[in-house]
Amino acid sequence: MTNNPPDLGALHWRKSSYSNGSGGLCLEVADGLPDLVPVRDSKLTAGPTLVFPATAWVPFIAAVAEGEPTA
How far apart are CA 36 and CA 55, in angstroms? Predict the structure, then answer.
């Protein structure tokens, strides 16, 4: 069985609501992969993409929303 990586260019990307509006900390996440959450810098869309398992992303976002330290 071959585990092929998803075609990240074909996904629908949206800017995170946590990105600032002054062109600084801009983050995009992609929809469409039920078990994965691709994340990239919106200023460098051709640059690297980090792909997190959804099981790790959901608690991370909950911690951010609660104002908990994430590092």
Answer: 8
